[in-house]
Structures are given as structure tokens and as C-alpha cells.
Amino acid sequence: MSETEADRPPAPRRASQPTTALLLPVADRPTRRLTTTMIAALVFLGAMASLATTMVGLIGWQASREVSQSLTVELPATTAASEVEAVAEALAALNGVGTARPLGSGETRALLEPWLGTDRLEGILLPRLIAVTTIASAAVPVGSIERTATALLPSAIVIDHRRMAGNASDAVEAVLAVGVAVLAALLLALALGARALTRAAVAGQGDTIEVLQVLGTPDDLIARAFSRRMRKSALNGAALAVLLVVVTATTIVAVFGGGAVPRVTPVLAAGAAAAILVPAALAVLLCGTQASRSARRALLGLEIDPGFVRAAGRPTSPAT
Q: Above 90 in pLDDT, residue 243?
């Protein structure tokens, strides 16, 4: 091998570019901690807003579905048990009615305690209630139920829960709109933060980037290094935020207990998991995308010193 061949640098440049990109110091440790903390805080807020909104929506949907197919017939407290049974049997025989079940005094008391309290119920004559459920595939026969009940007992009152369900649905829709708006605002703030941090990182590594560009490293390869670093910080921040959300939600359930938290169903569990994981995944994807775009735009705006290029032994332009 001749001396000229020994001193000649390796011909293929592609083998050195990935190593250069991996060794690029795109951010120092304090900046990485700041980025991870910012992402974790925003993802935590977004996931909590998404979780609360999803739970309100699912619980409201289940409650509306159950309430819309139920009615309550209220009878005077002095109504005899035989008359209550007669009314219940007559209502159960109607078309479109699934069941008509008289409620015991304990069930009636449990329904009124949250509104009146235990002390106020002492010594009060409780009304006799009949819980009526209708068939889901049939229309709710409110008129038939009311005529049948008042024919047997003129003082009977039929309570249609569909009005309450309609009001609850309106409230749930308002909460969903607010939750979606909050989540969108947090994701927008996250995108702007990722863009600003990436531009600052590119500006802070201007000297290193000049060297890489003079050596022929493509801008896309440099931009991928910044995007990779931002995506890693986003993954760490999102994982921390998910852990904090799970701990916070578990603590809330433990503090409030079963009285304030509904029974966990598979639908609620799946909704809760999606409400936590989807914002975290969107945050990681958004940070990586914004970092890549911002890095490419920032690299286009960097100006290489012509004297530095001449000192490196490369022409400043094809014409020189």
C-alpha cells in the first residue's frame, strides 16, 4: 500500500454519519431535565383533564341509559301493602313494561338519605314507591302507566326520569366540551414549548453544527438527532406523568371511597386507561414531530462563517 493511499480518508461517508449524529450533544443535562419536567407537567394536566372528562362522560352515559328506561310511581305513605302490590301487578301487565317492583322501606330510606340526611328521616312517614323498568326496544308507555296507576289509586304520582336524564346529558356535554378545550390548549402549549426548546438547542449548538455541515453531514441527519433527543425526553416525561396520574387517581378513589366513586366496570376501566394513555402518546408524537420540523427550519437559518469554511479547506461556493 502506498503512502498516498494510507493517508487518504475513507471514501464512504455514510459509515461515519450515523456515529456523528449519535455523538451530537444536542442538549446538556439541565436542558434535558427542564424539557422532561415541562413535558411531564403538561402531560399530567392533560391526562387528568382527559381522565376526568372521560369518566364524567361514561358515567353520565350509563346513568342516562339506565334512567331513561325507568319510572317511579309514588303512592301515599298510608297505602296498604295489598294496594301497593295490586298497582305493581297491574303495571307489570302493561305492554312495554319489563318489571314493576315495590320498594321496601329500607330502599326508600336509602334513596332519600343523600338528600335529607339520616336525622331528618327519623319519625317521617315515607311514601310507598314502585320502581318500573321498561323494555329497551319498546317506547316508554308513560301515559298507560299513569292512567293505570291513577285508576287504582287517584293519589298516585308517576315520575318520569327522562327529563332528568335530558338535563344530565346537557351537563355532561358541557363538561365534555370544556375537557376537550382544555386538552387541546395543553397540547398546543406542549407543541409550542417543544418548538421553542428545539430552536434554542439548535442555536446553542451552532458551532458544533457548523463543523458537521462543513464535514458534509446532511441537515436531515442533524435534525433527526434533535428529534430523537426530544422524543426521548417526551417518553420520559410522559411515563412520569402517567405514573403520577395513576397514583393521584388511586389516592382520590381511596380517600373518597365507594360513596363518591361508582362501581368500576370494564367500560369504565377501558375508558380510564385510554384517557390516560392517549394524551401521553399524542404528546410523544407531537414533540417528536415539532422538534424535527423546528430543527430543519432552524438549520436553514444558520449561516456558516466563510472564513471557517476556507480554513477547513473547502470552497465557499462552486464558483470559487
A: yes
